[in-house]
Amino acid sequence: MLLEVSGLHAGYGELEVLRGISLTVEAGEMVAVLGPNGAGKSTLLRTISRIDTNVRSGSIRFDGHDLLRASTVQGVGFGCLHVPEGRQLFTELSVDDNIRLGAYSVDRKTIEADVAAVYAQFPVLAERKSQTAFSLSGGEQQMLAIGRALMARPRMLMLDEPSTGLAPQVVEVIFGILAGLKRSGTAVLIVEQNAYLTLQHADRAYVLENGEIALSGTASELSADPRVRAIYLGGSPDEA
Amino acid sequence: MIARLRADTRTLPILALIVVAFGIFAAGNATFAQAGTYAAIFSIAAIGLSLLLGNVNQISLGAAGFFGIGAYAVASLTTWWNLPAWLSWPLATLIGITGATIVGLGLGFIALRFRGHYLAMATLTFGLICAGIFHETKFLGGAIGIEDIPYPRFGALTISGYPAYWFAWILALGIALLTLNLLRGRSGRAFEAIRNDELAAEVLGVPTRRYKILAFAYSGALAGLAGAVYAAFLGIVVPDAVGPQLSFSLLLMVVLGGSGGVSGALIGAALLGFLDISGHQFENTREVVYGVLVIAVVIAAPNGAFGLIRSRFRPGHPERSAEGRVVEGQPRSSTFALPLDKLGVTSSVVEVAHVTQRFGGLVAVNDVSFTLTRGTLTSLIGPNGAGKTTLFNAISGIGRPTEGRVTIGGIDVTGRQPHRVAALGVGRTFQNARLFGEMTVLENVIAGAFRTEHTSFGADLFALPSSRRSEREATDRARDTLVRLGLEPLASTLAKDLAFGDRRRVELARATASNPWLLLVDEPAAGLNAGERATLTADLLKLRDAGMTLLLIEHDMRLVMSISERVMVLKFGTMIADGTADAVRNDPAVVAAYLGTAG
Prior knowledge:
The complex is a heterodimer of chains A (240) and B (599). Chain A is α/β, with parallel strands linked by helices and 240 residues long.
């Protein structure tokens, strides 16, 4: 078990967003967290990364470490990497600088080799090495965000809505990259709005509703489950 | 807010007693009497600055400019014209105050463009410009200034020396009383609302720009009056005395005493006045002492001396009132009286026609049109970034649509300021419940009834019957609203102390206190638990049944589908569906927008 979240209650200030979340991610597994707006998907990732949220109760264990007792930076050191919503690149800096900024938690000696590996994986970034991140297309920016995260040698990559604003073909490319990571043993925890597409690529998924896990199962089970649609659009599942 | 004003009002007689006691004590001591007189004069200007800083949250480093206008008006006019003594000084003072008020209106208008440290810079520049003008103007005496200004004289009484002490303090305490009147009325509530949250104040119908300008003008007028008194009592005005140094001293008084209201300003002016006499021996190190003092106050007592005194009077949390106390007073009516019929509108409340909103290259809302019928509840849904809140903003005047038209009750409101749209009967709530944290629940809801009040700045200042009546009516209306939504047990709780779910309900109460006929509700259920959602649903239906037209942005689909007569769906700014809940839920385009398509 790489990531184990159990009984997590968390939110912002007095506002409780997550009301008892339990989930697991195994090494080399791609797990999706789905659900309508405001269900708590991003808050879950932010809580695992310990950004801005208050944890009331529950636990988060990652590779044997208690993440609730670790700082965001320590979490990165354990290999738990967050590619946030909107990519959050350093847009004024060059592509190369952005990639190197991802290497703060690892040994200096391996940096050059890692940079080369990222460029090998994303040749388009190598071509645009000295351009500012701002000048990249949406898909290239998403690749850069992933490439930057890879510099920290993640054991698990958490992505928040990587498909936002991207054309369908570009989304396919991103999912292709994630599939490659998975094969190399890196776990992927992905939050997505595009439920049906994500279910085609993920191994398992959890569907959040109002901060609770309403459904969970393998991707193929959930693809066929009418309750998923009822959660997104209201109404009872039998109508659907 | 009221708690703070009450403490202020109660402190004023104590301060008056101290003034009298000191006056008697200083009868034989010219140095003490003079120091006391200066404290009174500076406190008049400090009250204006305290209101600006502590009640409206606008900083000014240019107060000396207004002080100079008043001082030079008196100095130049009384030495130039030959009017009878009883008329000369009062008339010159009036002219000085008028001049300072007009310049204050101008500065206020300019200040609307600045915030925070930019505002500080802008006002500092204003002060420097004034000092430069006084210094360089020949007929104002240039660098030497104006000497031999006649003392004010009324019959046999010449106001200088010891009598000046009493005269100055009567004036200062009088100004303090008037300022308290102002703060207690509708104007004061508008100031407090602006201080807490400008945007929320604006959508409740508070013309925030006008009130900010008024606050600058009032503060300018008081500084002008202080300058006019100063010139007459001292008999000499030099440009250096009304330079930036004075602006800093006045600000120091306010920070030292505690900004907001009047007592802090009076205490601060007195404290600094006595530091000045006792500090004569270390004249050269005065700035250093003041600097250290400011740092110490900001760290140790951010609410100033008056803040410390207030917290002594009431140990613990001075502004927190007993929770759960039911307010007195009977709710008289629980029905809505909508102004809709007066406007001759019977069915179509709001009409959105071909509205497009672009931000740079992004089209946030794309050619959206719809009409809402009176007394209906419609929901606006769509994935994140669909443009729902942008559309709300376009209707309520927060953003001017790039193209298209918004009509409320047949009146074109496209691009009108939010408070003007609110005045036509449009209420709204925000995703993050923008309550006025430092005000109680009741005060928040009274602020919500702002546009139904009929009183003016002047009526508030002199506490005229029209101002008091208007206050009473607004308070009654606010209480009725609280009763209607079952919130009266929370009436005296400070908004910042409310539980999350209650914040949303209080915001709804505030938005409905003025009986709007169109209510825009932005994500009311976000963060609520099941019980709170049920209460919210009941509240929304109650408002609709009372004849309000509701437009709801909400992500909780169970809530949306159970209470909406009509659901409109936006995706990337475009309306992709509009119909009954069932029709929309089964629309393939809506399913794809929410769940995506496979492959």
